[in-house]
Amino acid sequence: MAPAHTTSPKTLQWRLHTVANVSVAPDGLSALLSSPNTTAVVSVHVLQASTACPGAAFVTIPVILLPPQLPCTGCTLLQLTAPLEGCTRVAVVIAPGAQAPDVGSLRPLAQWQDFGPFA
Predict the structure, then answer these.
(1) For residue 80, is it within any domain?
(2) In a domain, 107, yes or no
(3) Could you tell me the pTM of the whole model?
């Protein structure tokens, strides 16, 4: 018998559980999180200007926890899915307010301790 395999492309996933209301933008590249006292925007940024990230998008998924885990009433999973091919260096930015920040270019994580995240 041949080993099981998949022909679908490999993907990268980033996930965030939240009790905030989540509204994903039509292009799928940002999502607005809102609750009674605060608003935040979550956005994806490709870190290499010459690299597009086709197919990258946020989606929302209901959170269903099975026993013995406690239920998470009102929880939503915000998930970013992107193909690994040509899309291996992305950043998810969470910022207060309703507008995605202009992050310019982000430094590699290894340089954050000395220089901070933004170039």
Answers:
(1) yes
(2) no
(3) 0.72
